[in-house]
Amino acid sequence: MKILQLILLLLTLCSFTTPDEKQTLRQWPPAAVVSDEAVSAYSLDSCFKAFPIPDAIFRRMQGKSYKQNCTVPRSTLRYLRVLHRNIDGKTQLGEIVCNQSIANDLLDIFRQLYKQGYKIERITLIDQYDADDERSMAANNTSCFNFRVVSGTTKLSKHAQGLAIDINPLYNPYVHLNNGKVEPANGKPYATNRTANRKVPVPFINTSDPCYRLFIQHGFRWGGAWRTVKDYQHFEK
Ligand SMILES: [Zn+2]
User: Fold this and answer.
1) Which domain holds residue 63?
2) Are residues 232 and 172 in contact, defined by beta-carbon separation less than 8 angstroms?
3) Distance from Cα 6 to the centre of ligand 1, integer Å
4) Which end of the chain offers a freer environment for a tag, N or C, measured as fewer CB atoms within 10 Å?
5) DSSP 202
6) Which of 67, 113, 61 lies closest to 91 in space, CA to CA?
7) Residues 43-89: tens digit of each pLDDT
8) What's the 169 CA to ligand 1 centre distance in angstroms?
9) CA 28 to ligand 1 centroid distance, Å
10) Cα of 27 from ligand 1 centre, angstroms
């Protein structure tokens, strides 16, 4: 009897999924919105996965996040497929390039954030913005790997190894405390007065934020705890 009920449930779930949505999930176009029924029918496990960098993705990264002088071997990076709740609460497809050493952490964290309904506006590769950090942050894009130096220095960033990720960067900006500069520039209204009851489309990251707690549980450090700068969007390992 129980097996029969399970089969009926599965058939019901499948009946809500259009062939188009199944195709969308198979092809995984970044930023596509899909129904929760389609996700259930496709299986949640298949929606949170890490792969060696596929050729098509590596071509997208060339000369952008993967610059000519990049010293990080392609084999140490991973391409992740994840789901997230966008600012309308809809299920959206996301993609991340990160270091293989944090791939499982990120899959677990993003899976839990998705289950909790945590809102993240956009998760696509920074190559979509020609690896221009300011443009990607201004679009509130969550991203990880980018072979670049720390802003305002000549030191390689943790992002250069795919060991750092920026979450909802527009509403969680990078604030230089010495000169007041805010990155992205359109994030200035969110650099101060970051109280819990202030209305913003996505949560502010602070020490009581679920996203903060998950990253800390997984052994990451938070840029919002630094002294000379406040990098509210940034977690690194
Ligand atoms: Zn960062």
Assistant:
1) 21-236
2) yes
3) 44
4) N
5) S
6) 113
7) 999 999 999 999 999 999 999 999 999 999 999 999 999 999 999 99
8) 9
9) 25
10) 29
pLDDT bin (cut points 50, 70, 90) of residue 190 is very high
Rounded CA-CA distance 84/44 in Å is 12
Residue 143 has a pLDDT of 98
* Domains in the chain, number: 1
Residues 6+ apart with CB under 8 A from 76: 99, 100, 161, 162
Question: Distance from the CA of 165 to the center of ligand 1, in angstroms?
Answer: 5
Helices (H) and strands (E) in the chain, counts: 7, 10
Q: Would you say residue 7 lies in a domain?
A: no
Q: Is residue 10 part of a domain?
A: no
Q: Ligand 1: distance of its center to the CA of 42 in Å?
A: 32
Instruction: Give 54 Cα–ligand 1 centroid separation in angstroms.
Output: 24
CA separation, residue 65 to residues 4, 31, 32, 128, 161 (Å): 50, 19, 22, 10, 11
Within a domain: 14: no
Q: Kindly provide the residue ranges of all beta strands, DSSP E only, lying in 60-198, ordered along the sequence.
A: 77-85, 91-99, 164-166, 174-176, 182-183
Closest CA to 126 of 174, 182, 54, 60: 60
Ligand 1 (single-atom ion) residues, CB below 5 Å: 164, 166, 234
Whether residue 15 lies inside any domain: the answer is: no
CA distance 195 to 199: 9
For residue 64, the 8-state DSSP code is T
